[in-house]
Amino acid sequence: MDGDISGLTAVLRHFAIPFAVFAALAVAVKRRAIVDALWRCRQEATTNLLLLTINVLVMGPLFAIPVMAVEAVYAKPALLAALWGGLPEIIVLVAAIVLIDLVAYWRHRLEHSASLWRFHATHHSDTAIHWLTVHRKHPVAKLLSMLVDNAVVLLLGFPVWAVVGAMIVRTWWGYFIHADVPWTLGSFGKVLMSPAAHRLHHIRDEKLMGTNYGNTVTLWDRLFGTWCDPAPYVDCETGIAEGTRGFLGELIRPWERRYRAPDRPSVSEQPAV
Q1: Strand, coil or helix: 33
Q2: What's this model's pTM, rounded to 2 decimal places?
Q3: Model pLDDT for residues 38-51, shown as the tens digit of each residue
């Protein structure tokens, strides 16, 4: 019991700062509409917090096992270690962010395929998207992202500080792009994923949902033909045909009858707009 309480306390303490930051942002942007916005997202936010807690307390320790096993047997190439050590730190950090984004881009696209959508659907089911939506992930999907996203930079011998720094930047940017703000970021939005661009990825229309897979940069969406300008779709309706669920409903969602059909169309196979 003490372990469970300390774990929950750690979760709350870890998210105190982002909660304060994005609560202040919501008040500044919404002003008098803040009460209505909070009321609309109250149930989904509760589900997101419960999923976050499960993912931190259960998936976190499971993720540590293979990481420790790899570290025990994998020797980083001395040449690559020397390469990263000889470059300016900002270059190494940006390289780590961009490479992690590349791997996460393809992992994300695969999650829109018929075989993995059942687990990723939870993340798209918020109808009132907000910063906590970034944590609306089924435990299977969360474990997949933890195992896959950082694999390449670790194998390429990036220093630990760069990997951790990239994870922090991508995590905060993930909060930002899920925030309920209609910002395209102007010229910066051509390079960096904006809240409006990512909201478009959460749009209720499945064809447009197959665009803007990136987390931090737009580079890979532009290179692989899945970029879509969000300007015409600001404040678009979000959610999925399967509907939103409560906490237990999201946990059992992947095993619903609808996902057993082998011929379910893949969102990622839809043409980019």
Answers
A1: helix
A2: 0.87
A3: 888 899 999 999 99
